[in-house]
């Protein structure tokens, strides 16, 4: 693989840009692999990357029914933070956030990580108490967050209205090293590195069945034929229920549509990410100048990647109240993704009832921020067959045993 | 936009008038049941990509709970029926079969 650098740009500028290589290969599938991963979203690709990098397992295929990064990884609003309440969550999200800090250098691919700071507004007294608790928890967990006053919020976000009539701003939970990254680039960067390690990324290939023998996985049926494998990782987000059904088990997961939208591009006006959980909306500004906006999930099971209009209306109503200057902005694009929601709003990184079959799902509305940490933990689980410290609490049997990792109160909106 | 006919008051309700209530026809397992049944009742969901039976409430109308048969992959609605039914009624099943010949009731 030729490295990207300023020298490469200069060289190619002289050379009519003839020398750029394809970022990844499009191979024909082999008959079998040491490990097969279903789903080339961020989590699947990161799993493959750390299988190769941390565990030396490189005879790996990543099978994708559409195009890589075309699922939720390419549809999210790219918020990265690790200010969760429960210890297992803080551990994995902070691992991910810290890996993001140097991921561009590591992958030699600019993922545009921008730790611009992130605010979660408190607009009710209940929220004030909740966030103060989170700040204390974060301090104990080694996650740097602080509680800030409304005046400081106004300093950081001049376009905000802190004394609105309904929900004045009472303060905020502030994570200075939270922020955003370029979502596609995260998928592309990992894909390029995986391909460079000799892994096969097989796009336009849908897994349609899972073959087993004596309770162990032996391979997968796909639209490009049968592919054998010694280990299987299911990393398909919204389609987890469907693929788990093929593997013979059921999950505590439901698939819902989550929408986002962007405005026309405007001059820079807000250089932090702001989340307003009480009124249900959040916003940041992309490098292109678009205001990137999201809200809550739709309420019913849905696989169509489009959502209901009234949710958009509710989100915008909330944000206009918080940021009056956006009331005249035109919205340019709106889309949906299918998110996999668990009962405690925490992910599943787990062994399954099927031998040598592992699952990573349930990231729901907030898994972009977790991609590097999740891939790290899932690779560890797949390589050793047992979860390491990051994944240990996220097994699928925690529901049965009542060991919830309850983040449902901590995350009022979907991000 | 999702539109469902309320089987009680007959109103053609648009989704802002309705509240979704999750998977229908769950069989309740309580104290004394075994762990597998209890776990499945509490947490495991069919979450199908295709035909799905759901609970809905006509929240901003007559207030009643009812059930709906819907396709989660296309948003097609096959019909609605009263909540006091333990399984999908025959006419709804026939309507689904007419539209989805490969489908089986599980
Ligand atoms: C609108 C929206 C906003 C969001 N905002 C944020 C945010 O601000 N911050 C944040 O942290 N998270 C956010 N999220 C959540 C985040 O996008 C997801 O948690 C994350 O991208 C999941 O990544 P993944 O790799 O698990 O899934 P995906 O990227 O969806 O990848 C799964 C892949 O599996 C493939 N697949 C499925 N079935 C099969 C099959 N049978 N055979 C082969 N391939 C298959 C799919 O085609 C897909 O490409 C948001 C999500 C949405 C929809
Ligand atoms: Zn009614």
UniProtKB/TrEMBL annotation, chain A:
Keywords: Cytoplasm, FAD, Flavoprotein, FMN, Nucleotide-binding, Oxidoreductase. Gene3D superfamilies: D-Amino Acid Oxidase, subunit A, domain 2, FAD/NAD(P)-binding domain. It is an enzyme of class 1 (oxidoreductase). GO terms for cellular component: cytoplasm. One of its GO terms (biological process) is tetrahydrofolate metabolic process. GO terms for molecular function: nucleotide binding; sarcosine oxidase activity. Pfam families: DAO. Its cofactor is FAD; FMN. Belongs to the SoxB family. Residues 36-79 form the Rhodanese domain. InterPro entries: FAD-dep_OxRdtase (IPR006076), FAD/NAD-bd_sf (IPR036188), Rhodanese-like_dom (IPR001763), SoxB (IPR006278). Its main location: cytoplasm. This is Sarcosine oxidase subunit beta. It comes from the Bacteria. It catalyses: sarcosine + (6S)-5,6,7,8-tetrahydrofolate + O2 = (6R)-5,10-methylene-5,6,7,8-tetrahydrofolate + glycine + H2O2; sarcosine + O2 + H2O = formaldehyde + glycine + H2O2. Its EC number is 1.5.3.24. It is found in: Cytoplasm.
TrEMBL record, chain B:
One of its GO terms (molecular function) is sarcosine oxidase activity. InterPro entries: SoxD, SoxD_sf. One of its GO terms (biological process) is tetrahydrofolate metabolic process. This is Sarcosine oxidase subunit delta. It comes from Pseudotabrizicola alkalilacus.
